Amino acid sequence: MFEYAPAPESRAIVDLRPSYGLFIDGEFVDGEDLHKTINPATEEVLAEVTWAGEADVDRAVRAARTAYEQVWGPMPGRDRAKYLFRIARLVQERSRELAVLESLDNGKPIRESRDVDLPLVAAHFFYYAGWADKLPYAGFGPDPKPLGVAAQVIPWNFPLLMLAWKIAPALAAGNTVVLKPAETTPLTALLFAEICQQADLPAGVVNIVTGAGDTGRALVEHPGVDKVAFTGSTEVGKAIARAVAGTRKKLTLELGGKAANIVYDDAPIDQAVEGIVNGIFFNQGHVCCAGSRLLVQESVAGEVLESLKRRMARLRVGDPLDKNTDVGAINSADQLARIRELSDAGSAEGAQRWSPPCELPERGFWFAPTIFTGVTQAHRVAREEIFGPVLSVLTFRTPAEAVEKANNTPYGLSAGIWTDKGSRILWTADRLRAGVVWANTFNKFDPTSPFGGYKESGYGREGGRHGLEGYLNV
Ligand code: NAD
Predict the structure, then answer these.
(1) Could you confirm whether 196 is annotated as catalytic?
(2) Centre of ligand 1 from the C-alpha of residue 112, in Å
(3) Interatomic CA distance for residues 471 and 465, integer angstroms
(4) Would you write out the chain's pLDDT as a tens digit for each of its 474 residues?
């Protein structure tokens, strides 16, 4: 086997400040409660950020209200569009800087932040910029109105992309926002705040408050917000739904998943194996719609597994800034502990665990790509979201059994189907209770396409024309 020479991306393009305040009313304001944010691949401290308290959140919500009433709400859509196009272009211009910073703060491979996250972030702003002056044609009546101030709370797995999914439609529809990034990945949101300044976005239209769960709670429970948009775990989503119940606030929830990736016996095996690998090892499996349950037809299970193991042995795990890296670092010590706990439970419950030989770096948070075979539906690794590079493999004999097993989960975010026959794709997709069903591909995202869940994966849709609805008074 040929060895690859290291191909590290330079981090010189990123100019980090030692500490960051909160972005409120167009300016960075110093805070008192500073916390370190680290590079999960090395445990090196990158910077200190402020954790916002209730008074800070209140100031941010007030700034957003004033901006909504005085500037952004009354502004014609065609002018709002100009700002969004400007932001989209600035994201493109600074995409290398943003990609390197995303990989530093999150641990994801630079190949992914550069080729997936950043192009999609820009595409979301371009796409929703296009809607800003066409809202009367979006199918929500002749003159749909914004809601007001949106409180947005996002997770750490796609920090900047989740920001784009939230901020772009909100602004296009005429709302102002207060966004809270996740505590382990605040840095690209703060760089985005600089981009808002660079774009001359009116003060208060976008406010970024960093912090952990308490900051998020203060934000979603603030009486001055009209809309809550949350992406994160089902557990926190349920708490937010309870907190918002009985208020006037409109709510969208994008929560967890445990997607089935179904491989029929007539599937092109090599392509399916690529899809399985992309489905679960992309972004270290820190993907809500990851194909974390492989359902493979019994007659081809041996062949698929053999090929999958061969492919997994070629995955390069290591330095996220190396352009050859396929699998980067786990985002935090807490997440690593959770992945370990669930994987240990898989072994203890009798499933067979396998990982390719792979040397993990000594410092930082790492977990080798892992598969469990001999998994039954009762096993925790088949039921609970692991949110890491761990695949549970189950088999089935008939299409009906595949559908039954695929739907046997409290979640319903996504699913995949691999087969040679179009009719089988349609038959299966029709019966799967999942917001997104991919056929002969996996983890494909597009700003024009709605994304969201069934059951405990949440409600509301982000992306596409549908994504505007959550930000309009309809
Ligand atoms: P999490 O729920 O712990 O945290 C998400 C965000 O909520 C963070 O910013 C956190 O600080 C904040 N938060 C925590 N407690 C809060 C509270 N009580 N009130 C308000 N905010 C609070 O989730 P996580 O571990 O950061 O992210 C992983 C989860 O996100 C996974 O379950 C994954 O499936 C899900 N996810 C879903 C989607 C989707 O589109 N459906 C996308 C990405 C991630």
Answers:
(1) no
(2) 21
(3) 11
(4) 678 899 999 999 999 999 999 999 999 999 899 999 999 999 999 999 999 999 999 999 999 999 999 999 999 999 999 999 999 999 999 999 999 999 999 999 999 999 999 999 999 999 999 999 999 999 999 999 999 999 999 999 999 999 999 999 999 999 999 999 999 999 999 999 999 999 999 999 999 999 999 999 999 999 999 999 999 999 999 999 999 999 999 999 999 999 999 999 999 999 999 999 999 999 999 999 999 999 999 999 999 999 999 999 999 999 999 999 999 999 999 999 999 999 999 999 999 999 999 999 999 999 999 999 999 999 999 999 999 999 999 999 999 999 999 999 999 999 999 999 999 999 999 999 999 999 999 999 999 999 999 999 999 999 999 999 999 999
> Atom 35 of ligand 1 has which residue's CA nearest to it?
232
What residue type is 245 in one-letter code? A
Pocket of ligand 1 (CB under 6 A): 153-157, 180, 182-183, 212-213, 216-217, 220, 231-233, 236, 239-240, 254-257, 288, 385, 387, 413, 453, 458
Quote the ligand 1 centre to 133 CA distance (angstroms): 32
Compute CA 33 distance to the chain's CA centroid, rounded to the nearest angstrom.
27
If one counts every other C-beta atom within 10 angstroms of the C-beta of residue 68, the result is 23
Asked if 254 is an active-site residue, the reply is yes
Cα 186 to ligand 1 centre (Å) = 14
- List helix spans (H) across 349-450: 380-383, 399-406, 422-431
Does the global pTM surpass 0.85?
Answer: yes
- Ligand 1 probe mutation, 37, 183, 231, most atoms within 8 A of CB: 231
